[in-house]
Amino acid sequence: MLLVDAARFPRYKTCGGGLIGASLAELPAEAAAAVVRRIDTVTVARKGGRARAIRSTRPFLALTDRDRFDQALVDAAVAAGAVFRDGVRVRRLEEIEGGVAVHTTDGVVVSASVVVGADGSAGVVGRFVGVRIGRSDLGLELELELELAGMEPGWAGRVHLDWGAAPGTYGWVFPKADRLTVGVMERKGDGGATRRYLDRFVHELGLGGLPVERSSGHLTRWREPGSPVRRGRVLVAGDAAGLLEPWTREGISFALRSGRAAGEAAAAGARNGVARLEQYAQMVRVELEPEQRGGALLLRLFERHPLLVHLALTRTGRGADAFVRVCRGGLSIPDGLRRHPLLRRLAVVLAGDDRARS
């Protein structure tokens, strides 16, 4: 097996680095060691107002630095027998008899029986497969140094969320070993406004005096329901397939689960024929699409009635418990809605979109 990446490793990736239970369940031991924080408290505010805490007696979220985390995943793949080549950018794919020709920008052509693409939301493989994107959001992020400021962090064991003024927006603070990852998420359209949103968020938190180690941004894109994840012998996973949960825009668990399933299908397809590749598309339809639909319903509800969602999470024991259980991995969004059909119907009505009934 050949594993290639356009970047040179270890490399930085714009990402909060939050690992929910579904992500932790997928990790090899090498990657699990890259966890830098365990979180048992989340404080939640709205438009910079008073924050309320959701606490648990044991951690329900983990945090990692993506450079360490992704390197650990590469190391695990190499230990399992993969050959890794970084600094290799794929230019185009070509279907050939019995396989796929992978053309790189340095003129090398690699012949493969099956290709799994996980090259990001704007990558070559997603375009080749024909992934249809339903929506794009812009995330901006700062890495703020704590040690250099000589400041007591006060963040160990907790993360902070703040629902923004614009529909569907929120900011976050994730503590790492020696810095804070601070970011905001807003619908794509006005990058200047999103930058001002981030600056205002940092100022309101009193973090404006911390040195900025890094400033970056990325587009968070998710697929239309039914969008393809396979074309012939080419599979697409993770961000490249538009797989994430639309309300929180959490994507690591989707990348890990879809990557594992795509790899298993690719191995079976290489041994036993291309028909086995359809197993991957079936897994996405059965396991991941329902979670995306549930998240999309919550996002529509959150956009229309942010105060209602905020109160449900911070003022009701059931809302806080459901949040913790989803983070920990004991409950999925669609399972929660199935268990409470009246709540689901109310959410559909308040979201104003009967497409969410199915």
CATH homologous superfamily classification of the domain at 135-221: D-Amino Acid Oxidase, subunit A, domain 2
CATH class of the domain at 135-221: Alpha Beta
Question: How would you characterize the largest beta sheet?
Answer: 7 strands, mixed
Q: Shape from CA axes?
A: globular
Which descriptors would you attach to this protein?
358 residues; 28% strand; globular; alpha+beta; D-Amino Acid Oxidase, Chain A, domain 2
Fold and architecture overview:
By secondary structure, the chain is an alpha+beta fold. It has a domain at 135-221: 2-Layer Sandwich (D-Amino Acid Oxidase, Chain A, domain 2), CATH 3.30.9.10. Helices cover 36% and strands 28% of the residues. The protein has eleven helices and 18 strands. Strands 5-4-13-14-15-12-16 form a seven-stranded mixed sheet, sandwiched between helices. The chain has a three-stranded antiparallel sheet with strand order 2-6-3. Helix 6 (252-272) packs antiparallel against helix 7, helix 7 packs across helix 8 and helix 7 crosses helix 11 (341-351). The radius of gyration is 21 Å and the shape is globular. The model has no long low-confidence stretch (mean pLDDT 91).
Write the layout of secondary structure elements.
Layout: E1 2-5, E2 18-19, H1 21-24, H2 29-32, E3 35-39, E4 41-46, E5 52-55, E6 61-64, H3 66-79, E7 83-86, E8 90-96, E9 99-104, E10 109-112, E11 115-117, H4 124-129, E12 133-145, E13 158-163, E14 170-175, E15 179-187, H5 191-204, E16 212-223, E17 230-231, E18 234-236, H6 252-272, H7 278-304, H8 306-314, H9 317-328, H10 333-339, H11 341-351
Parallel strand pairs: 1-7, 4-13, 11-18
Antiparallel strand pairs: 2-6, 3-6, 4-5, 8-9, 9-10, 12-15, 12-16, 13-14, 14-15, 17-18
